Amino acid sequence: MPGQIAITVRLFASLREAAGVEIIGMCLPRGTPAGAVWGHLPANVAPPMPPQGLRYAVNRQWTVPSATLCDGDEVALILPVSGG
User: Fold this and answer.
1) Which residues, at least 6 apart from 44, have a Cβ–Cβ distance to it below 8 Å?
2) 3-state secondary structure at position 39
3) pLDDT tens for the 84 residues of the chain, in order
4) Helix (H, G, I), strand (E, B) or coil at 28
5) Are 77 and 16 in contact (CB under 8 A)?
6) CB count in 10 Å sphere of residue 4
7) What is the dihedral sign for C-alpha 76, 34, 26, 39?
8) Residue 72 has what DSSP assignment?
9) Which domains are seen in the chain, by residue range?
10) Which of 36, 37, 52, 60 falls 20 to 30 Å from 71 in CA-CA distance?
């Protein structure tokens, strides 16, 4: 589609369990930042607001939420880890 990019989103931990899959394909508008991916996840996968401490990796490199995505990118959503 014109003006759209196709990305894959890699899910881990409780996100993967909720989705029932490890990878979700998405089409998003050009210029979408990595931090906006959370808002495009299905409602059954993620709550409306991302958890504090959520980290992003694009193409296996840590990145900031404001990083602009490109067609074909893989975005990994890394939830904060708790425990001791």
Assistant:
1) 18, 19
2) helix
3) 579 999 999 998 888 888 899 999 999 999 999 999 999 998 888 888 888 889 999 999 999 999 999 999 999 999 887 655
4) strand
5) no
6) 13
7) positive
8) T
9) 4-78 (3.10.20.30)
10) 52
